[in-house]
Amino acid sequence: MRQKLRLLALAISLPLLGPIADALEMHETETRIPWTQASPDGLSALLVYADLPGKHPLVVITHGTAREVEPRNNVTPWAFLPQARWFARRGFVVLVVVRRGYGSSGGKPDYLDNGHCPDTNYEGAARKSAEDLRTAIDYGSKLPQVDPTRVLAVGISTGGMATVALTADAPKNLIVAINFAGGRGSIADHDVCNAPSLIAAYRDLGKHSRTPMLWIYADNDKYFWPELAQQFDAAFRSTGGQDQLIHAPPFGEDGHTLFNRGISIWGPIVDDFLRAHNLVLFPQPLPEITPPNIPPPPSLSDHGQQAFRNYLTLGPHKAFAVSAHHFASSTAQMTPDSARKNALENCNRLAASDKETCTIAFEENSPAK
Fold first, then answer.
1. Verdict on whether the full-model pTM lies above 0.85
2. Number of domains present in the structure of the chain
3. Are residues 266 and 322 in the same domain?
4. What average pLDDT does range 174-201 have in this prediction?
5. Do 332 and 257 fall within a single domain?
6. I want to staple 152 with a disulfide (CB 3.0 to 4.6 A). Which of 59, 61, 64, 214 is the partner?
């Protein structure tokens, strides 16, 4: 699936690009990364970049692991479209990769290599995850719009720890990496199976990691809380790992969702990190994606209308459900049916207190028939 969205025309020219008289296009293309260890279909991925001249650094982004099995089977790369656009607006070519065994990617999933609690093998599982990132980097480095000498890696949760493991056996073109709330083995809020084993894995990874890293953990992260994150950091640095640990302020009900929903919080932190490593490509980012001019469902409040405009910019498969006083959406799903099902369930849960029933108002960006 391919999308092309138009960015607003820039009010000023960017010196590195020359004058830009017209709007730019943002390319968003679902693709497959061929790999025998992810047979038969390879790795599911999403390529996002602005239509700019020249070659640009590559960013590879990867996901976490839900505690329940069903969400692991429904991971799509479109879930990280807003984060990919954040980097693309700064001039990077972005490749979001779904690791083996998740979503529609082939192969054996990395969480099967964690071991059986309490007999854990967190380092082995993280290193297996890093193989997927290395494969994605090799694929992305060959793309015509990519500068193969400058690669960044970004991961959340198990993907964050995979990114740390990648730096312990880093490709030569990996210049920096970012770990959002990295870890493994969370079995309940504030409960990690065999936490000493997880801390020891970070210590061992630090022995071979020399890539500059940024680590971001929210103060109310219920998977890997601040005291545990500090132990990860101390263990990693004790053997030579090079990271900057940032404790972000509390976010929502669980700060583990910071990367997914808190771009306004982590964006300035990452901007500072990029600046410190001479990776600010433009004086200012390219403009935000603007939604198409599609009228919202008539029942929506001002808050609902804003949510609908945001919905219009997100990736497939998606649906928007409404009742007389409530709304909900589901985006970046595996199928249109699952998008409709999730949107209705979410909306009806909200509407139950008012004894209302929701219906699907939009499928993708078109009114439901």
1. yes
2. 2
3. no
4. 98
5. no
6. 59
